[in-house]
Write a structure and sequence with these properties.
By secondary structure, the chain is mainly alpha-helical. It contains ten helices and no strands. The protein has one domain: Tetracycline Repressor, domain 2 (Orthogonal Bundle).
C-alpha cells in the first residue's frame, strides 16, 4: 500500500470511529488526509471499499502479530504462560496506540456487520487473532500442558474480550478506580494478573 492510500486509511479510521460509517463523509476523510476528493475512489473504489479496507487492514496486522508470538506450539507451561503474556501486552499496547480501529470493529460486531460490503470476509479477518490463540491452546492441550476439558475457543474469546474491554473503557476505568492500561506500568501489571489467573487460577 502506498503512502497516499495509507494516509487515507488512517484518516478514514479516525473519522469512522468518531462519526460512524454514515457520518464520515468522503469529503471529510479526504480533507483530513490532505487528499483530493477523488482519492478514495482512486485507491479504494469508494467509501465502502475504504471502510472494508480499514477493518481488513487492522485485523490483518493483529493476526500477523498473534502468529509471530503464538504461531508455534508451546514447549511447556512456562513457555505457554510467557507467550500469552507477551501477546496480551503487545495487543493492549497496539490497541491503545490506535483505539479507533477497535472502536470500529466493536461497533460492527454490535450492529451485525451491517456496514460491511462482504460481511463474511470481514468476520473471517476479525476472527484471525482468536483463531491463532485457539490453535495455540489446542496444541498445548494435545501436549498435555492443559487439561483435556479446556475449551480453547472459550479461553481465546475470554482473553480477547478482556483486552477489548480494557481498551474501550480505559477512560471510565481510570475515573472509577484510579488506574487503567493508559499507564504502561499498569498495562504490564494487569496483563500479568490476568494471565496468571488464567493459567494458575486463584486457589493456593
Amino acid at each position: 500500500m502506498g503512502e497516499a492510500a495509507d494516509t487515507l486509511l488512517h484518516a478514514g479510521a479516525r473519522l469512522f470511529a468518531q462519526r460512524g460509517y454514515e457520518g464520515a463523509s468522503v469529503r471529510a476523510i479526504c480533507e483530513a488526509a490532505g487528499a483530493n476528493v477523488n482519492a478514495i475512489s482512486y485507491h479504494f473504489g469508494g467509501k465502502q471499499g475504504l471502510y472494508d479496507a480499514v477493518l481488513g487492514h487492522w485485523s490483518g496486522k493483529q493476526t500477523t502479530s498473534a502468529e509471530r508470538i503464538l504461531g508455534r506450539p508451546p514447549a511447556d507451561l512456562r513457555d505457554l504462560e510467557t507467550r500469552l503474556l507477551l501477546f496480551t501486552e503487545e495487543t493492549l499496547a497496539a490497541y491503545m496506540a490506535h483505539p479507533e480501529w477497535l472502536i470500529i470493529c466493536a461497533a460492527e460486531f454490535q450492529q451485525g456487520f451491517r456496514n460491511c460490503d462482504d460481511s463474511a470476509s470481514v468476520k473471517k479477518a476479525m476472527r484471525g487473532p482468536i483463531d491463532v490463540i485457539v490453535a495455540f491452546l489446542q496444541e498445548a492441550r494435545q501436549r498435555n500442558i492443559l487439561r483435556e476439558n479446556v475449551d480453547a475457543a472459550v479461553i481465546a474469546g475470554s482473553i480477547m474480550e478482556r483486552i477489548n474491554n480494557q481498551v474501550l473503557y480505559a477512560d471510565t476505568i481510570q475515573s472509577m478506580f484510579g488506574d487503567s492500561i493508559k499507564s504502561s506500568e499498569y498495562l504490564r501489571y494487569w496483563s500479568q494478573q490476568v494471565i496468571d489467573l488464567l493459567v494458575h487460577g486463584i486457589a493456593r
